[in-house]
Design a protein that fits this description.
3-stranded antiparallel sheet; Ribosomal Protein S8, Chain: A, domain 1; 3-stranded mixed sheet; 6 strands; elongated; alpha+beta; 2 domains; GMP Synthetase, Chain A, domain 3
């Protein structure tokens, strides 16, 4: 039976329940914490040993787990659900830090050469990190080009 509308906390609890069952089904032990990030976003963080398989290459499996979790929660509510994020073994934080370092290096090259640089295609979440990192720096700007799943960012000197 679906509820008309779930609070953000209820959505987080539903996501935790789903993930708990998923981890059990795969034979993984993990602690699951729910964090309300803002008025529209809840994140469930999984911590434990040997969870890398559930992250997958470049977070591909994590993205699928997040999509499954979001679908489960959406089926619990007749109303629109908020943003539901899943993080496993601190992957998102590590990935964000690595992308910020990478982007800063590319920005230095673009500023020094005066020539734009196209990056490899990446996920929307990774593109957001790159855009946000570049927006915080002087002398450069970004644009996205291409069509999913081959959408990519171009970093160019600000003119």
């Amino acid at each position: 039976m679906t509820e008309a509308s779930l609070t953000l906390e209820q959505q987080g609890d539903a996501a935790r329940t789903f993930l708990s069952g998923l981890f059990d089904a795969f034979g993984y032990e993990a602690s699951l914490d729910v964090h309300v990030l803002d008025d529209e976003t809840v994140e469930v963080r999984a911590h434990g040993e040997n969870l890398g398989l559930l992250v997958g290459p470049r977070g591909a499996t994590l993205a699928a787990v997040q999509d499954l979790t979001r679908t489960f929660v959406q089926r619990q509510s007749e109303a629109r659900t908020d943003r539901i994020l899943v993080d496993i073994a601190g992957y998102r934080e590590k990935r964000t830090a690595a992308l910020q370092r990478f982007t800063t290096g590319i920005v230095e090259e673009v500023v020094a050469s005066g020539e734009e640089r196209a990056l490899e295609p990446m996920s929307p979440a990774d593109r957001k990190v790159v855009h946000d990192t570049v927006n915080a720096l002087e002398g450069v700007r970004t644009r996205s080009e291409g069509v999913e799943p081959h959408r990519y960012i171009v970093i160019e000197p600000a003119r």
